[in-house]
Amino acid sequence: MKKIIMGVVAVLLGVIGFAVISQQPVQASQKQSSNQNSDDKKEEKAVVYNVTAAAVDARDMKLYLNSTATLRADSQIDIFAKAAGQVVDVAAEEGAHVKKGDVLLQLDRQNAELELEQARVNLSKADMEFKRIEESFQKNLVAAEEHDRRRFERDSALSAYNLAEYKVSLTQVVAPFDGTITGRYVELGQTIQPTEKLFNLAKLTPLEADLYIPEAKASVVKEGQVVLLSRQDGFEDAFQGSVMRVSPVVDRETGTVKVTVGVHKVPNTVRPGTYVHVRVVTQELQEVLSLPKKAVVFDSRQNASVFVIEDGAEEGKRTVRRVDISLGAEDGGFVQISQGLEHGQAVVVTGKEALKDGALVNET
Questions:
Q1: CATH number of 109-170
Q2: Is omega for the bond preceding 176 within 30 degrees of 0, making it cis?
Q3: Cα separation of 181 and 203, whole Å?
Q4: Is the CB of residue 288 less than 8 Å from the CB of residue 61?
């Protein structure tokens, strides 16, 4: 009986020992897992984000009205001949700069010159006859009727001479104003009619552009205001013009006011037909708080905020705080801060995408 009892006890002790041994690795594993999670949390809390920053600073800024337009020549016309004839000389090509009165094209003038010479002879003869009669008339040697007839003949000969001289002038096509030939549509030896276009002439300085400003905003546009124009929407290659005219009426269909802008110093990179972005400077602001527009974060409702960099609770640590702001003017990649920030505060410019209030940052 004793042997049986001792055997049962031995079996029980073996089972208990096996359970204890089996349980120890599980507990060790759980403890190791718990320690690992604690380490991960510590690592997560210790994340430091690399950012670049800029200080809120005072700068001069401008307020603009933005628009777009197509540049056009101040004056641009098609040139036609006033008489038919054969072209014997083409004196101007595309791109040529010409002065008012310069000959652009010459027609055959032989017949016109012959008519002018005949008219000159007839005028000379009629003038001599009238002078002879005039002397006799003063001496009462001829009747008044004869005197009047000779004067009429002289005047008729003078009119014929003037007409012949005008016909000679029609054989030359001349520039009506200073400008640049932008098109030539005639060839040497061609026989032309007065209805045929020969040249296109444009006055390239100043160039002009027509803007159409909403009526509600047109009241701030005045003659002489500075205008910035650029082929790029970022105004990297901006050049300057000015407001030349503001229409006194509102277009009924569009509700806009026409504003004419002139560019007197024309860059080589633009010409009539160039599409440009336009900014009319309506106000110049002095020493207003501003920061780079890249620093601003917008939410789904377009509310603006920035991340301000501050000293953290631990010495040597830097954290961020999200601050709501109000924006004003925008100029050259900078925006005016009308509310929410103070001069000298450092704000995050790049690296802000993953930031939250209290995040650790490192300025690079």
A1: 1.10.287.470
A2: no
A3: 9
A4: yes
Report strand pairing: 360-363 vs 48-55: parallel
> C-alpha 212: how far from its chain's center?
14
Q: Cα–Cα distance between 120 and 313 in angstroms, integer?
A: 108
Which residues of the chain fall below pLDDT 70?
1-46
Q: Hey, what amino acid is at 207?
A: L
Burial of 112 (0-12, 13-18, 19+ CB in 10 A): buried
Find all residues with CB under 8 Å of 88, minimum gap 6, and list them.
Answer: 106, 107, 108, 188, 189
Q: State which CATH number among 3.50.50.60, 2.40.30.170, 3.40.50.10580, 1.10.1740.10 fits the domain covering 65-74+203-285.
A: 2.40.30.170
Strands lying side by side in the sheet with 172-174: 172-174, 103-107, 85-90, 191-192
214's tokens: 């909403």
Question: Using one digit for the tens of pLDDT, what is the confidence trace for 39-80?
Answer: 555 445 568 899 999 999 999 988 888 899 999 998 899 999
Token pair for 343: 């001069």
pLDDT of residue 152: 93
Quote the CA–CA distance of 325 and 322 in Å, as a whole number. Answer: 10
pLDDT at 64: 84
CATH class of domain segment(s) 48-59+287-363 = mainly beta
The model's pTM? 0.58
pLDDT digits (tens, 9 = 90+) for 80-126: 999 999 999 999 999 999 999 999 999 999 999 999 999 999 999 99
Whether the CB-CB separation of 197 and 191 falls below 8 Å is answered with no
